[in-house]
Amino acid sequence: MSTITTPTRYRLTTTAFQTLAAAGAFPGDVRVELIDGELIEMPAIGSRHAAMVSRLVRWFIPRLGDRAVVSPQNPIALGDYSQPQPDICLLRSRADFYADHLPTPADVLLLIEVADSTLAYDRDEKLPLYARHGIVETWLVDLQESRLIAHRQPGQSGYGERLECQAATPLAPLAFPDLAIAPADLGF
Fold first, then answer.
1. Which of 52, 20, 36, 27 is nearest to 118 (CA)?
2. Residue 165: CA atoms inside 13 Å, Cβ hemisphere, count?
3. What is the span of the domain harbouring residue 93?
4. What is the rounded distance in angstroms from the CA atom of residue 129 to the CA atom of residue 30?
5. In the chain, fewer beta carbons within 10 Å around the N or the C end?
6. Element spanning 17, H or E
7. Considering the domain boundaries, does residue 90 fall inside one?
8. Whole-prediction pTM value?
9. Is residue 140 part of a domain?
């Protein structure tokens, strides 16, 4: 009698992922994220997406000054198996700008994903990942519907609070209640 064996998936660790990246395993024009141990190839960034990221960076930097590091499209470390590259993170201010290690959830004051062609993936895969790892607040900028959606109160099953803003409705990050922004300020 033969035994039925189910193959085991190999989950890539962040250490192995970084080693592969440093060795040049990924072509320079390929955007790859590590999500729950799996390599995810992200589509090329379109012009609307790039423009929104630039608008957000331009809006936050002069208003925050030294109160936070504005980190666009840079990786963060989420445990041993995930290293996503959110569109923007507002990070706790550090003199070394995180030169000695990637930011962790405790460093993230606000995480922003800009979604156009990747809306379902960002909403259904990445936001729950951020909630499970305790990212206090995540904003989803939905370019398809011209809206800003804030997600707060992270937990193992997702975010407990969801606030949707359209047009002139302002929203301020929990970490910076003095910085209210409305979708209209972003060109919607």
1. 52
2. 21
3. 45-186
4. 22
5. N
6. helix 14-22
7. yes
8. 0.93
9. yes
